[in-house]
Design brief:
It is a single chain. With about 150 residues, this protein is of the alpha/beta class. It has a single domain, classed as Rossmann fold. The protein contains six helices and five strands. The strands form two sheets. It has a three-stranded parallel beta sheet with strand order 3-4-5, sandwiched between helices. Strands 1-2 form a two-stranded parallel sheet. Helix 1 runs parallel beside helix 5. The protein starts with a helix and ends in a 5-residue tail after the last helix. Keywords: Glycosyltransferase, Transferase. InterPro entries: Glyco_trans_28_C (IPR007235), UDP-GlcNAc_transferase (IPR052474). One of its GO terms (cellular component) is UDP-N-acetylglucosamine transferase complex.
Length: about 150
């Protein structure tokens, strides 16, 4: 599935802008202004704080890194995680599958991204609530003999 089809599907779903954070690869996206019912495309290579971009997004399409996943979910943003099985360890795929099963995000491969965008129902996603590690930390501290706060 090509990026043209993905852009068309995003536009069909009502998205008007696509902002891409590029990695270290050789692919360079084509910028566009979004004329004639097409989606506007822009990109950047690095940001010291991706959070501002995530907060402004109405949909995030991300790689399967756990940091990217949980940062997006904690901001309560709809998320599609695209797993490239050639470039990552299986634990990333397992994390994406588990969070999909829990209805926190959508999980795709590059060749299924367009279909996932077409079929997704953002309203059906369940907000992610991070766990509280405080009780476990207190128990470990007591076991090790540290004073409680």
């Amino acid at each position: 599935m090509g990026d043209k089809e993905v852009k068309e599907e995003l536009s069909r779903r009502g998205y008007t802008d696509l902002l891409i954070q590029m990695g270290r690869g050789s692919y360079i996206p084509s910028k566009s202004e979004g004329d004639d019912d097409s989606i506007a495309v822009d990109y950047f290579t690095f940001s010291s704080s991706i959070a501002e971009y995530l907060r402004a997004a109405s949909l995030v399409i991300s790689h399967a890194g756990s940091g990217s996943i949980f940062e997006t979910l904690q901001l309560r943003k709809p998320l599609i995680v695209v797993v490239n099985e050639d470039l990552m360890d299986n634990h990333q795929s397992e994390l994406a599958e588990e969070l999909t099963d829990r209805k926190h995000l959508y999980y795709a491969h590059p060749q299924t991204l367009c279909r996932i965008i077409a079929d997704m129902e953002v309203e059906s996603l369940t907000p992610y609530h991070p766990g509280d590690a405080t009780p476990v930390a207190k128990h470990i501290n007591r076991f090790l003999g540290f004073a409680e706060d």
